[in-house]
Amino acid sequence: MACNVRSWGPAGPECGGETVTRLVMTCAHQHLEADEHCADHADMLAHGEVWCSPCGRRGHICRSWPVAEYDQGGNRRDLRGKR
User: In sequence order, what E strands does the chain have?
Assistant: First the structure.
């Protein structure tokens, strides 16, 4: 699987880098997204440098942060409170 984080907003190209994790993200408006991330985008997300796609489609900018992670076996690990 490939990283599907989009550069330059919701209409930009997908990253395509090698997936290292599947993260569930949220934002201040409580949107939830689950996406595959490469190591670089997972690190950017952990540092508040990834924007919420649903917010972007609605015309405003909002940061996303991880709330859960899935490992290779599909097991979910809660990340809330670990930012």
Answer: 21-27, 32-37, 64-70, 76-78
